[in-house]
């Protein structure tokens, strides 16, 4: 082994460990960074991988991916990125094979079939695979980085003069969305629900006020009173599931239910890397929710109470798809009932289970 | 194979393995027919397949299943670059691929559906669907503890057979009256039913009583999961019960006897997609709206 290669390998190992550690500690910054970090790691993993066939590469990436995801099983974005990369490998492989065998594959009736055909075994030798896969992944990275801007640019289509808009907690995407509308000199009012017990809403309200947007901070208990006065609800989300349901910060479900009751549109701003191929099957599903320290709910001073009271602070709510009017994504507005189509485009069915 | 041989072969398959879906038995029969066929032209072979299909449809097994399976089979086998010299070989090969996928479908569904069955759940099911039985039994084998309510399901009372089968693997099962669906709904977390056919808009045709079950579940906000293989996707677009053709609703023998159908009990009903949460198929977990996409892929 030439000198330096061993260093490289151990350097990668270290990076992977740091990533998993950070995820375990819950030090994650924001979803975009998680996505980019995951992709960067995957690029390194692939560029240092030794493989003779696409099949070996798929297996290797899956195994490493499984390890990355185990750092925080509830962080869907890691899994999403791994699956997107797996799909890229499959597509690049097919493209190379198709190119090699000329036009024959172009008229391929097998592709039109309903049932899955004889399975592709990904064993043919494709020396150029690594380079083209890495190039395609870099494209994906650029797409993700530019996503927030694309979404924000659409704000004037949805925010109008004198609108009263309700949002919850803090979402960077939504913040940029509002600011972009404000830059276009649209005058509107934002009500920010504080999102107790974490109260990320405070920061959101502060940031919006600094951008000279008319902002009011409210508590979740007031949502019912406020809802009739609101024009529309614009929220962000942690991720969304394959049926279009949201995995969003706690409180979002009440908000969406109230909006439905009062017939207000719920618009979700989200980049499509947040779309997961997984379903929210049951409330108990281990990988769905995460629980924070109940410190905010009950002080340590009241520790003696702890023996008598159970205090829980789940981080996520599941919001069923029928409560959501539409998703404003980096690919433009999408209807929730169309999400299954996107899942099909982005992920290969064999990769859903890592 | 002549008509009688086709019918015998089909009936024999259904007798030998009661767990086999009638669609799979029909497809197996068609593959067998193709193997022995001496047809010299493409249209001749297609005609033979069509004729065999209509023969099998004269039996009392589910019309929806047989017709969807056979139609897809024919479409799939002919969806290739067929020339006069090699069409038998290509079609037979594609036929076998299709059959193979159909045979593997159930196992795929069973493993996919597992994530939806959880410890402590109470599940309501209707009649005795072979796939649902396998999903539940597999979950029990994974040491999941859950309770099942099953409707007795008139007129054939297949619910009792379902209870028998589930009890054998240790799942606490209770048979309820068909009319007790509303009574029991507040106690269940989800409804899981099979389907004889899945129509173009994502609705299903299934054993009579599925529709009121789904309506009730929707009203009480319980998810309704449909478990069915993709060879049950059928080209029909009913909007109401009356739109469902009589051949689907009544047994072939009843229709042949020339009885007044208004006086007969229909054997299936149509459940529209708005009442269905998700479908577990071998193509993946689909929302009802995804069904038309898949059908378009095959037929357009």
From TrEMBL, chain A:
InterPro entries: eIF2B_beta_subunit (IPR051855), IF-2B-related (IPR000649), IF_2B-like_C (IPR042529), NagB/RpiA_transferase-like (IPR037171). GO terms for molecular function: guanyl-nucleotide exchange factor activity; translation initiation factor activity. Pfam families: IF-2B. Keywords: Cytoplasm, Initiation factor, Protein biosynthesis. It is found in: Cytoplasm, Cytosol. The keyword DNA damage does not apply. GO terms for cellular component: cytosol; eukaryotic translation initiation factor 2B complex. The keyword Cytoplasm applies. PANTHER family: TRANSLATION INITIATION FACTOR EIF-2B SUBUNIT BETA. Component of the translation initiation factor 2B (eIF2B) complex which is a heterodecamer of two sets of five different subunits: alpha, beta, gamma, delta and epsilon. Subunits alpha, beta and delta comprise a regulatory subcomplex and subunits epsilon and gamma comprise a catalytic subcomplex. Within the complex, the hexameric regulatory complex resides at the center, with the two heterodimeric catalytic subcomplexes bound on opposite sides. Belongs to the eIF-2B alpha/beta/delta subunits family. This is Translation initiation factor eIF2B subunit beta. It comes from Elysia crispata (lettuce slug).
Automatic annotation (TrEMBL), chain B:
SUPFAM superfamilies: NagB/RpiA/CoA transferase-like. InterPro entries: eIF2B_alpha/beta/delta (IPR051501), elF-2B_alpha_N (IPR042528), IF-2B-related (IPR000649), IF_2B-like_C (IPR042529), NagB/RpiA_transferase-like (IPR037171). GO terms for cellular component: cytosol; eukaryotic translation initiation factor 2B complex. Pfam families: IF-2B. Belongs to the eIF-2B alpha/beta/delta subunits family. Component of the translation initiation factor 2B (eIF2B) complex which is a heterodecamer of two sets of five different subunits: alpha, beta, gamma, delta and epsilon. Subunits alpha, beta and delta comprise a regulatory subcomplex and subunits epsilon and gamma comprise a catalytic subcomplex. Within the complex, the hexameric regulatory complex resides at the center, with the two heterodimeric catalytic subcomplexes bound on opposite sides. This is Translation initiation factor eIF2B subunit alpha. It comes from Elysia crispata (lettuce slug). The lineage of its organism: Eukaryota, Metazoa, Spiralia, Lophotrochozoa, Mollusca.
């Amino acid at each position: 082994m030439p000198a330096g290669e061993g260093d490289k390998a151990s350097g990668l190992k270290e990076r992977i460990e740091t990533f998993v550690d950070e995820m375990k500690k819950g030090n994650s910054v924001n979803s975009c960074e998680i996505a980019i970090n995951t992709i960067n790691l995957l690029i390194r993993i692939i560029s240092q991988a030794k493989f003779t066939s696409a099949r070996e590469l798929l297996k290797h990436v899956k195994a490493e991916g499984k390890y990355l995801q185990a750092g925080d099983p509830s962080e869907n974005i890691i899994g999403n990125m791994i699956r997107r990369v797996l799909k890229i490998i499959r597509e690049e492989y097919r493209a190379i094979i198709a190119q090699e065998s000329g036009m024959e594959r172009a008229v391929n009736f097998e592709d039109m079939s309903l049932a899955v055909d004889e399975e592709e075994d990904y064993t043919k030798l494709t020396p150029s695979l690594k380079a083209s896969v890495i190039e395609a992944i870099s494209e994906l990275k650029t797409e993700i980085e530019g996503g927030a801007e694309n979404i924000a640019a659409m704000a004037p289509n949805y925010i109008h003069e004198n609108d009263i808009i309700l949002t919850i907690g803090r979402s960077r995407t939504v913040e940029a969305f509002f600011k972009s509308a404000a830059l276009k000199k649209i005058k509107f009012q934002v009500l920010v629900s504080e999102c107790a017990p974490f109260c990320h809403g405070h920061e959101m309200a502060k940031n919006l006020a600094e951008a000279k947007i008319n902002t009011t901070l409210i508590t979740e208990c007031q949502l019912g009173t406020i809802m009739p006065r609101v024009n529309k609800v614009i929220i962000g989300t942690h991720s969304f599931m394959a049926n279009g349901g949201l995995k969003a910060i706690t409180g979002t479900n009440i908000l969406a239910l109230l909006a439905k009751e009062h017939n207000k549109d719920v618009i979700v701003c989200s980049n499509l890397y947040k779309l997961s191929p997984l379903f929210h099957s049951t409330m108990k599903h281990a990988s769905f929710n995460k629980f924070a320290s109940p410190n905010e709910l009950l002080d340590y001073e009241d520790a003696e109470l702890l023996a008598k009271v159970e205090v829980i602070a789940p981080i996520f709510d599941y919001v069923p798809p029928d409560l959501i009017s539409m998703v404003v994504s980096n690919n433009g507005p999408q209807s929730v009932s169309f999400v299954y189509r996107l899942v099909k485009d982005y992920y290969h069915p064999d990769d859903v289970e890592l | 194979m002549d008509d009688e041989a086709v019918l015998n072969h089909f009936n024999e398959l259904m007798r030998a393995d009661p767990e086999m879906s009638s669609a799979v038995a029909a497809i197996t029969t068609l593959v067998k027919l193709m193997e022995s066929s001496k047809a010299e032209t493409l249209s001749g072979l297609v005609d033979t397949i069509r004729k065999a299909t209509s023969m099998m449809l004269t039996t009392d097994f589910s019309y929806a299943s047989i017709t969807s399976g056979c139609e897809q089979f024919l479409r799939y086998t002919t969806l290739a670059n067929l020339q006069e010299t090699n069409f038998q070989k290509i079609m037979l090969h594609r036929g076998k691929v299709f059959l193979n996928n159909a045979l593997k479908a159930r196992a795929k569904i069973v493993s996919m559906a597992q994530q939806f069955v959880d410890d402590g759940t109470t599940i309501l099911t209707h009649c005795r669907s072979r796939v649902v039985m396998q999903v539940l039994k597999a979950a029990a084998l994974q040491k999941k503890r859950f309770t099942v309510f099953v409707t007795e399901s008139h007129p054939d009372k297949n619910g009792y057979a379902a209870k028998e089968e589930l009890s054998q693997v240790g799942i606490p099962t209770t048979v309820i009256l068909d009319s007790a669906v509303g009574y029991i709904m507040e106690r269940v977390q989800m409804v899981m039913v099979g389907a004889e056919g899945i129509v173009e808009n994502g609705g299903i045709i299934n054993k009579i009583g599925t529709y009121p079950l789904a309506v009730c579940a929707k009203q009480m906000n319980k998810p309704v999961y449909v478990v069915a293989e993709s060879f049950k996707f059928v080209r029909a677009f009913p909007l109401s019960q009356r739109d469902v053709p009589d051949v689907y609703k009544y047994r072939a023998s009843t229709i042949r006897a020339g009885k007044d159908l208004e006086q007969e009990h229909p054997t299936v009903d149509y459940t529209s997609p708005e009442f269905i949460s998700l479908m577990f198929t071998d193509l993946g977990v689909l929302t009802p709206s995804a069904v038309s996409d898949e059908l378009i892929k095959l037929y357009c």
